[in-house]
Amino acid sequence: MKVTVDFEECLKDSPRFRAALEEVEGDVTELELKLDKLVKLCIAMIDTGKAFCTANKQFMNGIRDLAQYSCKDVLVETSLTKFSDTLQEMINYHNILFDQTQRSIKAQLQTFVKEDIRKFKDAKKQFEKVSEEKENALVKNAQVQRNKQHEVEEATNILTATRKCFRHIALDYVLQINVLQSKRRAEILKSMLSFMYAHLAFFHQGYDLFSELEPYMKDLGAQLDQLAVDAAKEKRDMEQKHSTIQQKDYSSDDTKLEYNVDAANGIVMEGYLFKRASNAFKTWNRRWFSIQNNQLVYQKKFKDNPTVVVEDLRLCTVKHCEDIERRFCFEVVSPTKSCMLQADSEKLRQAWIKAVQTSIATAYREKGDESEKQEKKSSPSAGSLEPGSETKEKLLKGESALQRVQCIPGNAACCDCGLADPRWASINLGITLCIECSGIHRSLGVHFSKVRSLTLDSWEPELLKLMCELGNDVINRIYEAKLEKVGVKKPQHGSQRQEKEAYIRAKYVERKFVEKQPASVSLPESGTKGLPQSKEEKRHTVAVSSDEARRESLFCPDELDSLFSYFDTSSKLRSSNDSGIQQSVDDSREHLASTISANSLYEPEGDKQEPSVFCDSKQPSPGLQLYRAAFEKNLPDMAEALAHGAEVNWVNLEENKATPLIQAVRGGSLVTCEFLLQNGANVNIRDMKGRGPLHHATVLGHTGQVCLFLKRGANQHATDEDGKDPLSIAVEAANADIVTLLRLARMNEEMRESEGLYGQPGDEIYQDIFRDFSQMASNNPEKLNRFQQSDSQKS
């Protein structure tokens, strides 16, 4: 090591030593200024870089917004999404670079200035102080008179001590100088080397990232070239078509331009007509009319919901109208009202009249065929929702999670798209999914679907048993009950992701395909059972249903009043002068009388209910259905109740405010409890006696349930109205297994609190014991029934 200041010169305190000190001190002062300036520049660079990253992130979010806006163009959406993801990665790399710069330049050099240079300054102050004391001692020693022996000795002793102290501090000062001069080289180069390596890593990461993107960019460039060629060709084709249409002569038959027929979408005819309003002024308004689904409807704007003029074409007739001043008019007459319409020409009027007459004839034929089909669909073959006992026994023997779950009926294919060999599952729904559908389920949120891998994740035994109790067939019977009625096509594994996402959201979030419970049934509220209704209550129920039907109807209020009066009064039908109307009403009157109620008139065809359902006052509410099914260990019924909107923490006021989870405890099923917990049941809700699920499981001696509730965060310190917590109840009952579990859980909780391990599961021994109890409760429950067996023997 090169010595900046010589130690021997330090002892001599020679002019050469003083000159060397002066040079070193000046150098250190200048070094401190340079380092301070460099640190400030580094801070400014980092702040500017972070501002750049913020602006870059906003730009990247703009690209993502543009990608979402272009969702209908797969190429644009995919490309912009890939580019925005790449830019996001570059922003992350920039942030890493700035963090490394802050550590290597700012933090490291600041530490050197604050610690090492400060030590140098402190040593310098001590050296200057002792130097001054030494000079004073020399002057005093030189000034003392020889005849004053006492003063001579005192001055000599002070000088000797001062010189000794000076040499000691001077040596320390020189050592500090030499160490500083040696260390500053290493610190500066070390920080700069770290900074340069950070840049090297940044550019390498960026290069690798864009190297992966480069093939896609080249492919996109080739597609753009082809798109330019296709666009030029399309432009020529459109120009040619424009020229051809422009040269065509429509003067001979211009009516074809005034209406459209779209048989693929069930539109018999559509086009503009003038409609006379039913107000006092009898104004005429131009509207877009169409004949579809055996109805005559019109719209003011394309996005507006169509207004129904004729609900059922079988009940109407059409005729020319020559008794008004306006030309080309015709009238569509129903049993309740008439609608005056005007076409733009005589040919158009004839075309519309013919279309309406044809639709009336077609409606009679199609209605007969549809009624036969619906009767066949309404009586499916009765099949068990649960797998056979032999299958369940086989499942509980030692196969892997994937093998056990895929053995359940329907689980060998994805529940939502049908792709074979699914490797993912929704644990709260009890279904198997492919990887793409599982990603869509994750986006719904855990309150709708909790996704887990059948091959990568570890499975608790009670959770695995839950998966084996349900399955794709059971859940699809519930969540796809109305799929054929509403006319929605289930996506396949090759369908677009947007189509799958829309279907899954409609299926599980909006529950559009779940068979709705009767709307007019007096369903029990929270805590009430379904009781027979009085006549006044029934009358009120029907009135409410009628009002709700009116609000949801496409008819205006006047039209609704007319329809209600029509179905309530038969004299109007007899007094009709039009033979066509009388004939159509007579043919369909018996059919209408047996099928039409206040609600079914105005609901879509897929949502119509049979009249007998409305009279069933014993139909329970979804909450009560869940409550009863939990006790009966009927998981398909529980899943159906949740699909109908049952509150998982529903409270039965007539049974001590018990919840479905407490009923599941009473029923003695571990799987039922796990199903409710996975669907959001609160493990700490207590009944009127202050007893929660953990209390009830302890009282009943259900060891497996106690183990499950403790794992799910049950509060074991809660006391009932008698002031007893679960542990004291288990001790009184002398249930050794439950006492062991409760004490272990309490010890583990106290240990975690004392060590500050909040949120941690506990030590390995505690986890192993609970894991063993879970295995026994799920696979060998008879081993945990010692307590119940001994009690029965005693009795």
Automatic annotation (TrEMBL):
Keywords: ANK repeat, Cell membrane, Coiled coil, Endosome, GTPase activation, Membrane, Metal-binding, Repeat, Zinc, Zinc-finger
Domain spans labelled Arf-GAP: 399-521
Gene3D superfamilies referenced in this protein's UniProt entry, alphabetically: Ankyrin repeat-containing domain, Arf GTPase activating protein, Arfaptin homology (AH) domain/BAR domain, Pleckstrin-homology domain (PH domain)/Phosphotyrosine-binding domain (PTB)
Coiled coil: 117-147
Residues annotated as signal peptide: none
GO CC terms, sorted: endosome membrane; plasma membrane
Localization, UniProt: Cell membrane; Endosome membrane
Superkingdom: Eukaryota
InterPro entries, alphabetized: ACAP1/2/3-like, AH/BAR_dom_sf, Ankyrin_rpt, Ankyrin_rpt-contain_sf, ARFGAP/RecO, ArfGAP_dom, ArfGAP_dom_sf, BAR_dom
CDD domains: ArfGap_ACAP2, BAR_ACAP2, PH_ACAP
Regulation: GAP activity stimulated by phosphatidylinositol 4,5-bisphosphate (PIP2) and phosphatidic acid.
Organism listed in the record: Amazona collaria
ANK repeats: 656-688, 689-721
Domain PH as annotated: residue spans: 266-361
Main location class: membrane
Record note on domains: PH domain binds phospholipids including phosphatidic acid, phosphatidylinositol 3-phosphate, phosphatidylinositol 3,5-bisphosphate (PIP2) and phosphatidylinositol 3,4,5-trisphosphate (PIP3). May mediate protein binding to PIP2 or PIP3 containing membranes. The BAR domain mediates homodimerization, it can neither bind membrane nor impart curvature, but instead requires the neighboring PH domain to achieve these functions.
Composition skew (Basic and acidic residues), residue ranges: 365-378
Membrane topology of the entry: Peripheral membrane protein
Name of the protein in question: Arf-GAP with coiled-coil, ANK repeat and PH domain-containing protein
Span list, region Disordered: 365-390, 519-544, 598-619
Protein purpose: GTPase-activating protein for the ADP ribosylation factor family.
GO molecular function: GTPase activator activity; zinc ion binding
